[in-house]
Design goal:
Number of helices: 6
Structural class: mainly alpha
Helix content: over 70%
Shape: globular
Number of domains: 1
Strand content: under 5%
Length: 113
């Protein structure tokens, strides 16, 4: 168990890098990492929707917006390596986040005045 926790800590620190690696060679770590993402991203969605301004909530989390493509890549890499139900849940929460952040992402990509 400490090995898995350390691996998740390393993964979390790597998310601060421009192109975080996606490791799929250690199945217990991959399972834990997938579960971690499902829980964390679903929690962020709930917090955004319980806030008075979901757009402002996501605007304040530019790191999350930057990482959405990485999480999509992780989802693709995990597919077939972890139970289908887990990749289904991760894919679902990512689809919802993509939809939830569409306005924010579009607004942030628009050229300024």
């Amino acid at each position: 168990m400490p090995r898995i926790i350390r691996a998740l800590q390393v993964e979390h620190h790597a998310l601060d890098q421009p192109d975080p690696p996606i490791a799929t060679d250690d199945r217990p770590v991959l399972l834990a990492s997938t579960a971690d993402k499902i829980v964390a991203l679903a929690s962020l969605r709930r917090r955004a929707h319980s806030s008075s301004d979901p757009d402002a909530f996501f605007t304040a989390r530019l790191g999350l917006l930057r990482l959405l493509p990485h999480f999509q890549d992780f989802h693709r890499a995990a597919t077939g390596r972890v139970p289908a139900r887990m990749t289904g849940q991760l894919g679902h929460v990512l689809d919802l986040l993509h939809r939830d952040t569409a306005t924010t992402r579009t607004r942030l990509q628009e050229p300024g005045p």
